């Protein structure tokens, strides 16, 4: 069971790029990677607008709250680099031979996915609330589509990251079940002897040897019998 757990095959096996890209987990990572680019790209490029044509100072489009724009950009960047990191981990996951290292990688994936789900939920609520309080103007109307895109893809990111957390939880449960199976079937020490046949299994032990029947009572000169003379 060493090297064949937590949703991957034995360590050292060949990686098929086509099968890897078709995995639901890989598709989800690429999807949320694109969503993160849309969110922080929209905010950086089009969500800083002028209050009016006479004011050159740029303000955040979300009710002129700089914290809203900064938070959306920060979460998007964290998600962007997090997707790249775990994409590489998934790519080399099958090369990890230690079950403990695989377990740590899956737990890290589970914790990070759950954490990002929470961050995106806060981002969606924060941006949507500030957008409702925004007073429309000429500058705001120019970046309105970008603001709505940031809010919309923040919501979609929640769903995708929750799905990634569920996939990581399934991999963790699968790996735990296989580890328990391996512990029950085989000894934990590499030098432990292989168990012998249980009693009553129908296989006789070869440790003791029994003499053939009737050899102990066989007498070469039985009493009362004389060899006839010719």
Widest β-sheet, arrangement of strands: 1-2
Report the order of strands and helices. Answer: HHEEHHHH
Q: What's the main sheet like? A: 2 strands, antiparallel
How far is the N terminus from the C terminus? 80 Å
The count of DSSP E runs of length 2 or more, i.e. the number of strands, is 2
3D structure, described in words:
The structure is a single chain. The chain is an all-alpha fold and 230 residues long. It is 60% helix and 3% strand. It is built from six helices and two strands; from the N terminus they run ααββαααα. The chain has helices spanning 17-22, 24-46, 66-92, 99-132, 138-142, 144-185, and strands spanning 48-50, 58-60. The chain has a two-stranded antiparallel sheet with strand order 1-2. Strand 1 (48-50) and strand 2 form a beta hairpin. Residues 179-188 have low confidence and may be disordered.
